[in-house]
Sequence to fold (454 residues):
Amino acid sequence: MNAKASLSIVLAAGEGTRMHSAKPKVLHTIAGRSMLGHVLAAVSDAGVTATAVVIGPAADQVSVEAKRWEPHADVFMQSERRGTAHAVLAAKAVLERSSADVLVIFGDTPLVRAETLIRMRQAVADDFSVAVAGFKTTEPSGYGRLVMKQGKLVAIREEHDASDEERAIGLCNGGLMAFAGGTALDILTRIGNDNRKKEFYLTDSVDIACKIGLRAVAIEIEEDDVRGINTKAQLAEAEAIMQRRLRKAALEKGVTMTAPETVFLSADTKLGRDVTVEPYVFFGPDVIVENNAVIHSFSHLVGAHVGEGASVGPFARLRPGTKLGKGARIGNFVEVKAAVLEDGAKANHLTYIGDTQVGAEANIGAGTITCNFDGFSKHRTEIGAGAFIGSNSALVAPVKIGDGAYIASGSVITSDVPADALAIARGRQVVKEGFAARLRRRKDKGTKADDKDD
Ligand code: UD1
Ligand code: CA
Fold:
């Protein structure tokens, strides 16, 4: 990694009108993380020493998200959208403060990787003043074109301003650029707005650098790294690319997936060694699955920690605050929220467990419900180690079931049950001999009478 100080400026002032959304563009998510979050994570992985984020007016949420990912980031506001160079200069104060090399990254290119940022930095650490990420594509429309002369990058021409000959160039500007610290501010402040859109184009920096005797270089990188997101369709394409990357990384770490293309991961999903994930499983943000656990098909996990060798699903839903101990079992149609199931505890069928502590080896029968909400507030349920909750019981919180206690099936438990006790809270069974047969005879007669009337 490069030891020299470096600064990254992330441009996130886009309105994102083509997303047709109330949400600022860079807050749309890919693999459970905002686009801005992805960019700032890559910036941090690349070992950048300082970060500035340029936001648009009334973008408080963008500022909050920037601080969430990079608490030390300087946030600047570009009050009028007057072009990419104008946006960079909104952060002029940090450029004046330091002579670090500068990376300019667009907040709507969430697939950019740390390796790519490092390559860009390396180019200006060596002997170039400006480095531009170039890529080859079959669909160049909308991108700036890299104009080369005798193998050297001499200009970037925006499509609006390009001649037919320039439009035929296959190498495009990915938007990502690096500037050597010593000359960055000099180049940037020389940029004017003499073009069709009357905007200050960051891309003019190449032409300017060449004219004042400095050198620029194009670094060819993969198209995916600089894929810009302007529409929901492009967001979905980027999601697909990100999912492929995440699945591949999980498989390389020793996760078993028989149909990886059906498993959806979040950028922060952590799956241990020899974890098996069956087809059609969804991992939302903040999930950790320890070694040897199995996640069966059609399960949906968000904010959950699955212990070693535990089993989840099929058709299970783990919501935030779920923690499963070693070898715990959550079966089909079981929902768990803000609950801890200690080692070996089981809830195998048709159950809701919320705001609950379940002791080790406790067994929760089919159809058990923790009634945690009284219409006003949430209450806790505590179930002791080795307790047995008979099927179809309702545990009305707040309530405590002691260690080793036994709850008879179909009980509605409203008060605490001591350890090793049996609680039965249901109507006593009544048997009336011959009643059904008598009833049938009576009904049969009635039917015949009715038939006669017809
Ligand atoms: C830009 C490049 C183009 C390149 C393409 C790659 C310029 C002039 N053009 O074009 O050469 O091929 O990206 O995707 O740089 N932004 C601001 N404030 C502004 C204008 C833009 O913050 O005043 C931000 C946007 O939010 C966005 C980024 O800068 O994140 C790029 O702006 P955009 O308008 O999307 O540029 P393109 O036309 O795509
Ligand atoms: Ca763009």
User: Anything to note?
Assistant: The longest helix spans residues 232-252. The pocket of uridine-diphosphate-N-acetylglucosamine (ligand 1) is lined by residues 11-14, 54, 78, 81-84, 86-87, 106-108, 143-144, 156, 158, 172-175, 201-203, 228 (CB under 6 Å). Residues 6-226 form a domain with the Spore Coat Polysaccharide Biosynthesis Protein SpsA; Chain A fold (CATH 3.90.550.10). The longest strand covers residues 329-341.
